[in-house]
Amino acid sequence: MRKKWLVLSIIIFLVLVISAFVVIHYSSLHSTKNKTALSKHTSPIDLRPAIIAKLQSLVKTGSDGLYDLSIQKIEPDILSSTVSVFDAKLIPNAQALKLLDSLKKAPDDIFTISLDSLHITGINVDDLLHTSDIQLDSIVISKPVIVCDHQPKEYNRLQREREERKTLYQKLIGQLKSVNIQSILIQKCTYTSKQKNKRQKIFNEVTMQFKNFRIDSSTQFDKQRVFFSKQVNISCNNFLSRTTDSLYIFKMDSIQINATDHSLIANNVALIPRGSKTQFEKKLKYRDNRFTLLFPKVIAKNIDWWALTNNESFTSDEMELYNPAIKDYVDRSLPTSDKNNNIKDFPHQLLMKVPLKINVKKLQLRKFNLSYEEFNPQSNKTGTITFNNINGTITNISNIPAVMKTYQHTTAKLNGFFMNAIPLTTNFSFDLKKYKTGNFSMQMNIGSIDKSILNPIAESLGLFTVKTGTVTKANTKIEGDNFTSNVDLLMLYNDLHLTPLKKDSGENTTMHKKTITSFFANVFLIKNANPTHGSNLRTAQVNAQRNIQESFFGFVWKSILTAILKTIGIPEKYADK
User: Fold this and answer.
1) Distance (Å) of CA 381 to CA 39, 391, 458, 505, 549
2) 506: DSSP letter
3) Cβ neighbours of residue 545 under 8 Å, at least 6 residues apart?
4) How far does the chain reach from its first CA to its final CA, in angstroms?
């Protein structure tokens, strides 16, 4: 579905409003022609069956037979300027659709619509009869259920291209010059989007409120409005959408939009794996990463509503993410594939895959938590590396070619804690012009680390334990792409003694010390300090090769680990253990 569901909702309720106008218009004309008879024997309410029949005829004719309209009850009240419609349904006619398709006249979007009730107040019959400017006090639509089946047809391609050059106003307005409605309330709407070969998107119990809604030739370019309104509030209970591979569910609780101050607030946005780790892995043929993304509160400021409404692009001067969390888990016991499953999944590459055009000048992270978790079958343990309570700024987030030419790099300057205890600062830079090859760079500085922090990682992922030793400082620089990274590491440490570990054979998964190996390693291989007595500081320069199954986070960790092993004298091949 090319257009956002909100835009479709606007189109739908405008169709219903115009239908209501036809009701009043028709009943008014009918009563004018039969004024004497009506005054003695008939009221407009008695015309309800004829009005419904007329509406059905208008819908049938106006859609070339595509839609059938049914209305259980209609209550026009010209004296009080109101009209109410109950239990209305708009249903596509399968035979008519087949005929239109054979004539190459079928639309790309087919709607099935039902609603409990529609109430309109403030209808002025004289205005309806003599002007193309429509003004209403309010519209209340209760429990609409909307299903949009989007099936793009090749014979509509040129028309779609012409439509894309139009503003939303030009697409909506026909014979009318303007529509002005003080208040619109859509209660408990269910909206379902269907597309060929794609999972359904379902919005549940959506409530939308529009204030000061006005469509005319001037508001089509009014950047102070969103969807032609001065103020929009939207809530959605448990929006659900599966990813195309059916491995994840995208969820969102609510959105609040304020057109006046150009802001948007989204609550509890999440991308969640379907099922537990075991259930998730049963769906995989080969090793792959399992991601969990949680964004409890998202605030966007200075949004360009006109661009969002008309060009399907999201532009914001500043966004804030509060308490976001990203978790990455990989099970190394699963078989690997020869296919490049994870190639081109670096952050700036994923941004390019987003169908919506995005340009965010600045993104503020507030208490961001990142974890990389890995199961090592050789230790039969899971090791977790965490970066906690991270605050910082990411600038120039864009997938728009014109912006990418001006601002070549997306940069991130962050500070927080490693393993919830060790202060760290880090800078990332992602090359937008070279996103296809994944070019990026990183700098990271970490403070003092003792064995109580190192051992949970070392024992699970490195198959060794730190008997003694303290890292006093570590600075690293990485430049990499899709397949390789060049790492410079300066790690200062002292009194380092390691004990290699091995897993018992058979079903016993207990880890034991390799005593003899430990002795030779600490005496002949491991460099127990940096700098050693009477020597200069040692820096490690390594070139790390990416396993094509690794995610971005996994690749960065392996690159750093390779440099650490070289610094302390352990063969770099153990980075792959």
Assistant:
1) 88, 31, 11, 15, 20
2) T
3) 483, 484
4) 46
Question: What SS3 string covers 55-106?
Answer: HHHHHHHHCCCCEEEEEEEEEEECCCCEEEEEEEEEEECHHHHHHHHHCCCC
Tens digit of pLDDT for each residue in 509-545? 555 444 444 434 444 457 888 888 778 888 999 999 9
What pLDDT does 361 receive? 95
- What's the mean pLDDT in 216-239? 76
**CB-CB contact of 475 with 444 (8 Å):** yes
- CA–CA gap between residue 453 and residue 466 (Å, rounded): 10
Cα(359)–Cα(403) distance, integer angstroms: 8
d(CA 134, CA 182): 11
Cα–Cα distance, 122 to 422 (Å, whole number): 65
Answer whether 193's CB lies under 8 Å from 207's CB: no
| Rounded CA separation 69/51 (Å) | 12
**Rounded to 5 degrees, what are φ and ψ at 457?**
-80, -45
Calculate what percentage of the chain has a pLDDT beyond 90. Answer: 28
- For residue 529, give the 3-state DSSP assignment: coil
393, 399, 401, 405: CA torsion to nearest 10: 20
Beta strands 357-376 and 313-322: pairing type?
Answer: parallel
Conformation bin of residue 217: beta by default, left when phi > 0, alpha when psi is -120 to 50? alpha
Model confidence pLDDT, tens digit, residues 24-62: 444 444 444 444 444 444 454 466 787 788 778 877 877
The answer to whether the beta carbons of residues 259 and 305 sit under 8 Å apart is yes
Cis, bond preceding 531 (omega within 30 deg of 0): yes
Beta bridge partners of 254: 235, 267
Please give the single-letter amino acid code of residue 569: G
Which of these, 175, 166, 236, 174, lies nearest to 208 by C-alpha position?
A: 236
Helices 5-33, 48-62: axis angle to 10 degrees equals 130
Write the secondary structure of 363-409 as one string of H (helix), E (strand) and C (coil).
Answer: EEEEEEEEEEEEEECCCCEEEEEEEEEEEEEEEEEECCHHHHHHCCE
The secondary structure element, H or E, covering residue 266 is: strand 263-273
CA distance linking residue 519 with residue 70, whole number of Å: 86
Q: 345 in helix, strand or coil?
A: coil
The alpha carbons of the chain give a radius of gyration, in whole angstroms, of 31
- pTM of the complete model: 0.72
Q: Any idea which residue has 């000048």 for tokens?
A: 361
pLDDT digits (tens, 9 = 90+) for 355-386: 788 999 999 999 999 998 988 888 788 889 89
Residue 138 CA to its chain's centroid (Å): 33
Q: How far apart are CA 139 and CA 10, in angstroms?
A: 12
- Cα separation, 321 vs 288, in Å, equals 27
